[in-house]
């Protein structure tokens, strides 16, 4: 949007910021519709960008400084640093943005093969970047005072507005790729249980990567608009971006070196050679960029610190919760002991008891039986399993298993990212009951049981269903007292805050509210 100021000097900086914010808000508001409907435009836009900017660069180089391409020679790099010394090192902080623009193109790298990325960079992206920046440099050699707006100033007047449109659209596409990448990273973090649960909506039935999160979307929108309005200077935002990208490159080099040594089993000499060359090159850039820390470079560090703290507290709390549940889980042998108590009654009806432990039952069950002295005549311990497929076949959707205890069954509901909410309340009960009937018949036939026993068990299922269905789930919290240190109190206290304000682990199965029962229990931290 800064390009409006060249042909219209009366356009103020505040107006440019406001227009940029409006475009961003419109872009974020469109996220809920998915990118499938407009993604066919992305390739032509980026194709136009990578084709037109180098053409302008070639024109500018021929017109202003035809010998600019000698800058590719390492001789001039060495001469530059010998002549400028420390100042030359500081200048690297200004040139680092020349290599960061291509980072946005890696946002959806998982959707392409390695070969296609190599071909695209060798034959399009890299030549385009070299020719474009060569043209800008040739212009700036003749017009050094235009350094603050070198891009739009070097564009010829006859093609100014077409280039303005292409540049704006390319910036929107790059922003979209980063927004989509944010949704993807958050979704993967939620699946790995490293981030508080947020609503994830798949906007495509055949592409797992096309996701949308309302909470993340609007939080990101507010944050981006705030950065524009508070740090309106493009230079400050550029410094922030440069710090982040240069650090990403350095971290990637370290991680790739570990992959080469531990996974690829690359010879140590080659691994060391790769690490030395790239670590030194990127380390010099990072050290130079850090001089801009006070000029906007601190922004991503502040945001990263907050996100890292949230992720660490959530992971710490989830690990403590999982450790407690695995240590105090209720096995079927223990359940048999609890039900053997004469004071425990079997209440009529059908109960779906949700548990997130595959080889046992959450300790909430023991808490419930000990205090309520009852358990439904037909109790189905239900777990949910998320599969990385669009849709789960109907015959694989519900897996059931009969236990040795009367009226007690296990059930696993499997769902993919495109049909997570397709099973509704009554349909869920019907499908589980039908699966149980078939399983009971097959199970009894394998044991050569009498038909009367099979019929009696099936009738008890129908009777329990007619009497009423309830859905039980645990609502647990950590209990801390004076014996716990300040670290546990802070970490677990913040985890409880996050847990009470995040989405439920259960997908929206359309369960009737009047049939849901939450059972509270305090875990000893």
Q: Which tags fit this structure?
A:
525 residues, alpha/beta, 3 domains, six-stranded mixed beta sheet, two-stranded antiparallel ribbon, elongated
The span between the termini is 53 Å
The residue-averaged pLDDT reads 85
What is the makeup of the main sheet? 6 strands, mixed
Count of helical stretches:
18
Strand content: 5-15%
- Residues in helix, %: 55-70%
- Low-confidence segments, given as residue ranges, are none
Helix/strand/pairing category = alpha/beta
Shape: elongated
Counted beta strands: 8
Gyration radius over CA: 31 Å
Task: Give the neighbour order of strands across the main sheet.
Answer: 5-6-4-3-7-8
Total domain modules: 3
Order of helices and strands: HHHHHHHHEEHHHHHEHEHEEHHEHE
In short:
With 525 residues, this protein is of the alpha/beta class. It is built from 18 helices and eight strands.
How would you characterize this protein structure?
It is found in: Cell membrane. It is a multi-pass membrane protein. The chain has 525 residues and is of the alpha/beta class. It has 3 domains: 2-232, no CATH class; 238-296; 326-524, no CATH class. 58% of the residues lie in helices and 11% in strands. It has helices spanning 13-29, 42-64, 74-84, 86-95, 97-100, 114-142, 150-153, 160-191, 214-230, 234-262, 268-289, 298-327, 332-340, 364-372, 394-397, 425-446, 451-467, 486-501, and strands spanning 201-202, 211-212, 345-354, 374-386, 398-402, 408-415, 469-479, 516-524. It has a 6-stranded mixed beta sheet with strand order 5-6-4-3-7-8, sandwiched between helices. The protein is elongated, with a radius of gyration of 31 Å.
